[in-house]
TrEMBL record:
Similarity remark: Belongs to the BCCT transporter (TC 2.A.15) family.
Keyword Membrane: yes
Matching PROSITE patterns: BCCT
Species assigned in the record: Chryseobacterium terrae
Membrane topology listed for this record: Multi-pass membrane protein
Listed name of the protein: BCCT family transporter
Membrane-crossing residue ranges in chain numbering: 7-27, 47-66, 86-106, 135-158, 185-204, 224-246, 258-281, 315-333, 345-370, 402-430, 442-462, 468-491
Major location category of this protein: membrane
Highest taxon, organism lineage: Bacteria
């Protein structure tokens, strides 16, 4: 099969990725030194950019949640979700946090608890702060970053039929320029950022897996040889999963992992200090809500002692989530077709955040409790060794050997799901969302991720790559603000389009055929009766209108199907969407009380049928069973007049050309 890779994206991306990786391998210390200086300059002098952008993301999403746009569907108005709610949540959760939960579940609360910035506080306050800041870094703000990118991509791809690509998010601003160098530049940036982020995460994940296997006695040491073996096995599995697609491998592994994660969570909850954990979670949630706005706008500018901690944690996290957002956003968008904006925001912001709060409370607070009451500070002594801390913590629980095995299994599956969804997304960007790509491309991306991760891990260049990833977050945060501008502009056009009322040319009923109208109203029709209405009255009206259109040199055609019975008149266009007005047979379930009502005509069964109008733009149709032939023609002309009025306005160009956009992909 011919490659689907786009040379305008793939060539510059590979040159930059491989070039940066080679420099990081050959000169790891010098590269890390320079990139660290740049990163520190940004964090110290431009940290307010991250604070304001993330704050704007949260405010914007809350606005959408309660606005009139919340019921807008990510797709046509009649679109349905492609995945079950559980599978959807499992996949976005696995892609969004994955290995990070296992790596930082114990490590982050313990490091906040022992941070020098809070050394003067009482241990109770330090424990509360540890939970509070962990909630802050893994909660609503983190998922708001992902949600902005995911929502923009899903909306423009499924609503406007544009490619599932970051360039599509600029369509209201750049129009057809997104298909040229401007669009390529955005996708190159997204591909490189995604590749660096996944490579870095996989490198650190391999180290943690190796450490866990050593603690369990499966391997004798944490060495590069064993890391090569681990990467080879896991990336092979990831490629196999990616090749099977989202609907099979990725969905199965995500569902499996979230189930195992919940089991592990319950084990630690009930085997650890249960009452303390439930109480601390409750108090921690209240503390988070009470301090939400202080945390959101906090810059620590009045607390110089805590500024280094602030740069190394909060600002680093915002930069890290932003740099990961092209990858996670693309994947979330891919699996979110058919959801409403309100449903998307609620699910992406709230559910993962709450689960993260529960997870971090159970593991982090358990570790602090054990460190204070049982371990006598032993966990605090190794709090900076995140690779081994989770496994050391489990030693203070019953069934620690079994729990170690479960943790390794979870990390392995998270490793695979991060890698396979990463391969999927990278290939998606590099091919401009090609419908079908040859399998060797997934193998190529998987091999490249594995090789570069191992080279950088062995040479000590992962830190350089991580710094590069964090630096790219600054320009991308500005790009994301333009996503919001585009989304607001498009949603406004969208809303005006569907709210547009008909002209005042609606023909009212007259009293000439009132007896027939009454008969129609009190009759419950079977399927064959409605089919006859469509084949006679509707068809005759459309044929008469088709003939009249031809006199004005307008080419209209009648489309008719038998199973199910429906007929439509279509006027085709080259640039704007076709005008379609159709009528189809639609069943309706009758209520039980209506079936037994004596003061109505008898009803046979619980189903009745009616002829329902439908339109090419998927607006809500309605019952036309009472229309005469001339009234039906008049109704079609109402919609055609509305159609011409809308396409005559330049601002509607984006929406009314969505089918053209699909053909241009």
């Amino acid at each position: 099969m011919k490659t689907t890779l786009k040379s305008g994206i793939i060539v510059p991306s590979l040159v930059f990725i491989i070039g940066v990786s080679i420099i990081s391998v050959l000169f790891p210390k010098n590269t890390d030194y320079i990139l660290t200086l740049i990163k520190q300059f940004i964090f110290v002098n431009l940290n307010w950019v991250y604070i304001w952008t993330v704050t704007i993301f949260v405010i914007f999403l809350v606005y959408l949640l309660f606005s009139k746009h919340g019921n807008t569907r990510l797709g046509n108005n009649d679109s349905l979700p492609e995945h079950s709610f559980f599978s959807w949540i499992s996949m976005l959760f696995a892609a969004g946090m994955g290995i990070g939960l296992m790596y930082f579940g114990v490590a982050e609360p313990m490091q906040h608890y022992n941070a020098e910035a809070f050394a003067g506080s009482h241990e109770i306050n330090r424990a509360k702060n540890a939970q509070l800041y962990t909630f802050f870094h893994w909660g609503i703000h983190a998922w708001a970053i992902y949600a902005v990118v995911g929502l923009s991509l899903a909306y423009f791809s499924y609503r406007y039929k544009l490619p599932l690509s970051l360039r599509s998010c600029f369509y209201p601003l750049l129009k057809d320029k997104i298909r040229g160098n401007w669009g390529n530049t955005v996708d190159i940036f997204a591909l490189c950022s995604t590749f660096f982020g996944i490579t870095t995460t996989l490198g650190f994940g391999v180290v943690q897996i190796n450490s866990g296997l050593q603690i369990m006695g499966i391997v004798p040491e944490t060495s590069f040889i064993y890391q090569i073996i681990i990467v080879a096995i896991l990336v092979t599995l990831a490629v196999l999963s990616a090749v099977t697609g989202v609907d099979k491998g990725i969905k199965f592994l995500s569902n499996l992992n979230i189930s195992i994660v919940v089991i592990l969570l319950l084990f630690v909850l009930f085997l650890g200090p249960t009452v303390f954990l439930i109480g601390s979670f409750t108090e921690g949630l209240g503390n988070y809500v009470n301090n939400f706005f202080n945390l959101t706008f906090g810059t620590h500018v009045y607390e110089e002692k805590t500024l280094p901690w602030f740069y190394d944690w909060t600002i680093l996290y915002w930069a890290w989530w932003i740099s990961w957002s092209p990858f996670v956003g693309l994947f979330i968008a891919k699996i979110s077709k058919g959801r409403t904006i309100k449903e998307f925001i609620l699910a992406v912001l709230i559910l993962p955040s709450v689960f993260n709060f529960i997870w971090m409370s159970v593991f982090g607070n358990s570790a602090i409790w054990f460190d204070t009451n049982v371990a006598q500070g032993a966990l605090s002594e190794i709090s900076n060794n995140a690779d081994a801390l989770m496994f050391k913590f489990l030693e203070y629980l019953p069934l620690s050997g079994f729990l170690n095995f479960v943790v390794i299994l979870i990390i392995v599956i998270f490793f695979i799901t991060s890698a396979d969804s990463g391969i999927f997304v990278i290939n998606n960007i590099a091919t401009e969302n090609a419908v079908e790509s040859p399998k060797w491309q997934s193998v190529f991306w998987g091999a490249l991720l594995a090789i570069l991760a191992l080279f950088l891990l062995n040479a000590g260049g992962l830190q350089s790559l991580q710094s590069m990833t964090l630096i790219t977050a600054l320009p991308f945060s500005i790009i994301m603000l333009f996503f919001i501008v585009s989304l607001i502009k498009a949603l406004t056009i969208d809303r005006n389009y569907y709210d547009r009322s008909f002209s005042e040319s609606v023909i009212p009923w007259s009293g000439e055929i009132w007896k027939k109208r009454l008969n129609d109203i009190v009759s419950f029709k079977d399927e064959s009766t409605v089919e006859d209405f469509i084949k006679t009255t509707v068809k005759a009206g459309m044929q008469e209108l088709e003939q009249q259109f031809s006199e004005y040199k307008i080419s209209a055609k009648i489309n008719e199907t038998e199973n199910p019975v429906k007929i439509e008149i279509e006027i085709q266009h080259g640039r704007v969407n076709n005008f379609i007005y159709g009528v189809k047979v639609e069943p309706k379930i009758l209520s039980e009380y209506l079936q037994t009502e004596k003061n109505l005509p008898d009803v046979e069964g619980n189903l009745t049928y009616f002829p329902k109008a439908y339109f090419g733009d998927a607006r809500q149709g309605y019952d036309v069973q009472y229309f005469t032939q001339n009234e039906l023609i008049s109704d079609i002309l109402k919609h055609y007049e509305r159609f011409l009025e809308i396409i005559s306005e330049e601002k509607n160009e984006m929406f009314v050309s969505s089918n053209f956009n699909r053909r241009k992909k």
